[in-house]
Amino acid sequence: MLSILIFLPLVGGLAAALLPNAERRGGRDAGFVSLLFAAATLGITIGLIAEFDAGAGLQRVTDFTWISELGIHYKLGVDGLNLFLIALTALLWVVATTGSLPRETRSGSSSGRRRTSHHPHR
């Protein structure tokens, strides 16, 4: 599961960047794809938090030999402090992506401009 949390943002970024006509409509399509991957990452993180045992130490350990001749391993694990940082990163990614979407995507309106009446000063 930790490997998914690492590589899902990479896949989402590549999918958004390589989306056909990603710049069309002000980048809304690419932003929406990025937001979907951000929400998926946040969902996986919430699942990780729900399954976390506070007294068990390092959990969700992934360990396999990557380059055996050099003794290099791919090893991941999560503890309480790391879990907080993972959750903070996933939450901030959703917030930042939502904030970067074109205004009409966020508000659902057809125009990104706010209409205000102008009253001249006397």
UniProtKB/TrEMBL annotation:
InterPro entries the UniProt entry points to: NADH_UbQ_OxRdtase
Spans traversing the lipid bilayer: 32-50, 81-101
Record's compositionally biased regions (Basic residues): 112-122
Signal peptide: none
Residue numbers spanned by region Disordered: 101-122
Keywords: Membrane, Transmembrane, Transmembrane helix
GO annotation, biological process: ATP synthesis coupled electron transport; electron transport coupled proton transport
One example GO MF annotation: NADH dehydrogenase (ubiquinone) activity
Protein name (database record): NADH:quinone oxidoreductase/Mrp antiporter membrane subunit domain-containing protein
Organism name: marine sediment metagenome
